[in-house]
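Methods — Computational structure assignment.
A single polypeptide chain was analysed. Its primary sequence is given first, followed by the predicted tertiary structure written as structure tokens.
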Amino acid sequence: MPKITYIEHNGKEHVVDVPVGQSVMEGAIKNGIPGIDADCGGACACATCHVYVDPAWQPKTGESSAMEQSMLDFANDLEDNSRLSCQIKVTDDLDGLIVRMPRSQH
């Protein structure tokens, strides 16, 4: 099972196993990771699961869709590596993925 590292805005790390097929957001919610609220439940209809994907992992997480890009417009502290964690599906290739939560999500 792939291990995902979630890093809170204060630097606290959470390394959890997330089953293949779940989203990075689901992994956070099911493991009680603070900083990812997922108000819309993963429907890509809000930006409360905004994360920064570690630059080394950006190519493996794929490109964001037009719908995701439009939702990211509502996120605070947007960066080039911003993604909605509900839109990143966990695969075996993402074993070791590192995501960080923005300061605005705590």
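Note: The mean pLDDT is 95.
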